[in-house]
Amino acid sequence: MKKLLIATHNKGKVREYKKLLSDLPLEITYLDELGITEEVEETGSTFEENARIKATEYARMTGLLTWADDSGLEVDALGGRPGVHSARYGGPGASDEEKYRRLLAEMEGVPEGSRTARFRSVVAIATPDGRVWTTAGKCEGVIARHPRGKFGFGYDPIFYLPWLGKTMAELPPEKKNEISHRGEASRKAKKLLRELLESGELE
């Protein structure tokens, strides 16, 4: 059975992906399981560039088919920030709460109609010989005035979905996966993987 490396140290993400990909003929592994501690530097200026960099580097390093993603939040009133810096917003070692509190402080005084934002996600699948495929997903919403909800992580407590009347952090995990940027990109990537496996392109 072909091995697929999920290029993350995040066990929650690994669990989600294992569940998503469970019906494909793949053995799923991840960085910690292989004892890989090297961090690939994300030097791209877009989510796609960063996902490609991670997938190709780890595929080259391990000789394995590799799945990597990059995701983040774009806020229109902040000129698209935090964008590719979403994970590092607020400085090194900042907690999720510190990141979203900083963002709320920056949004102080921004009126309701101008608080639009979106989560974006790109999944890249790379082979050790340098071939790469990408898929993308997005989820539109607005930045809430105050955090709400106990599910999810990152900016979920302040990302409000007007059509549901809830923040992302108020949605149970299965509902979040249904509508989220990462859920959309991942489902497309799974479909792509299935096609590549069936066509023999990954042999």
Question: What report would you give on this structure?
Answer:
The chain has 203 residues and is an alpha/beta fold. The protein has one domain: Maf protein (Alpha-Beta Complex). 31% of the residues lie in helices and 24% in strands. The protein has helices spanning 11-20, 47-62, 96-106, 173-179, 181-199; strands at 2-6, 26-30, 65-75, 116-126, 132-143, 159-161, 166-167. β1 (2-6), α1 (11-20) and β2 form a beta-alpha-beta unit. α4 (173-179) crosses α5. The longest helix is centred in the C-terminal third of the chain and has 19 residues, at 181-199. The protein is globular, with a radius of gyration of 17 Å. The protein starts with a strand and ends with a helix. The mean pLDDT is 94.
User: Strand sequence of the main sheet, in spatial order?
Assistant: 2-1-3-4-5-6-7
**Extended strand count:** 7
**Estimated radius of gyration:** 17 Å
CATH class bucket: Alpha Beta
- SS summary, helix count: 5
**C-alpha geometry:** globular
Walk me through the topology.
Layout: E1 2-6, H1 11-20, E2 26-30, H2 47-62, E3 65-75, H3 96-106, E4 116-126, E5 132-143, E6 159-161, E7 166-167, H4 173-179, H5 181-199
Parallel strand pairs: 1-2, 1-3
Antiparallel strand pairs: 3-4, 4-5, 5-6, 6-7
Helix pairs in contact: 4-5
List keywords for this structure.
single chain, about 200 residues, alpha/beta, Maf protein, seven-stranded mixed β-sheet, globular
Give a nutshell description of this structure.
Helices cover 31% and strands 24% of the residues.
